[in-house]
Amino acid sequence: MEGREAMIIIRNIEPADAEVFWNLRLEALKMNPEAFGTSYEEAVQVSLSDVVNQIQNKKNHYILGAFTKDHQLAGMIGFRREYKIKTQHKGTIPPIYRGQGIAKKLLLEVISRGRKVEGLKQINLSVVAANQAAVELYRKLEFKTYGIEKNALEYQGQGYDEELMVYFY
Questions:
Q1: What is the mean pLDDT of residues 47-70?
Q2: Model confidence, pTM
């Protein structure tokens, strides 16, 4: 696995990557519908031009992609800093898009970039509490649980609790 990880290139998703990015996003929504607030049925209706328009490469708002040596997108993670005066000290990581064991690398890159954002003091995320692999990864990277939202998501009549976690700089 370590040799495989060495071939991963972490970089911002660019508008030219929109189609491959969106296909991976749709696949994640299909495979793990309980892990995301958006449903596949909603997302599949979004046009590719809208996806392109949503891609931002700013210091405070971006999507990172993990690309293999042959330029295949293997995983991704997003980051968005809050913009209101009273909450701009926080950033948010939406649910991670899984892919070939690279989530840790992606998270470490977001944490590293966050250190360079003036005034950013914490990164918040939420994770379906039943997703123990993700919860353990976040804990290993020093994210702390600060609450549980009961039935945060509902899919096919099943409620899913979300663990609310924070990383402090």
A1: 94
A2: 0.87
